[in-house]
Amino acid sequence: MNEIAQSIIDAHGGLEQWRKFRQVRARLVQGGALWALKGQAGVLDSTTVTVATDRQWASHAPFGPVAARSEFTRNRIALLDQTEHVLQERENPRASFEGHTLETPWDALQLAFFAGCAMWTYLNTPFVLAWDGVSCEEDGAWNEQGEEWRKIRLHYPNNLEVFSKAQAIYVGPDNLIRRLDYDVEIAGNTPGAHYVSDYTTVSGIRFPTKRRIYPRLPDGNSLPEPLVVSIDLHEITLS
Length: 239
What we know:
Strand content: 35-45%
Oligomer: single chain
């Protein structure tokens, strides 16, 4: 872990404090245009999300009317009932998105994979910068929202399931994250600008509770509409 990663992680509570815990859980309220576009409106509008901090694992419970919960790992996605019986599962789930565009509808397992991958990454950022194989480097200054932000390029290894291996984060003068950039490869490489705000402190760790994702232009600026995804987190706990 280099000095860039260290400074950002320290601003969010520090690696020593983070490694005291194995899971993050939060009540999740979601909106935005993406879910209806994918034929999955309302399924995950209000649920509880749990992610692991020491491995790639995430679960949404309930998973709408479809299942009691989902289970996301890098190589498998599954939907389970209240007795933990597997209702549906898919190995190598990323392969099922081959040829997809932004408008291609998802089935329930694809929704579970997207949501699990997303929330695992979001809730583990920036501490994922300390994982083996993850690297970052400065990419200059960026002015937005009346502040000068540092743009940081991120590179993820092949053994982590993320939306794209090359991403970026922007941090403010306090080293807290303000924005994330990535291209959603499983949705036709759709470019997103993901803004985070309304930080709270839970067990010594700083979490943004408000997330808003908009289309990103080639010059790096974002469009004010449509609102692709909105995420609000409540009752965050670490255990």
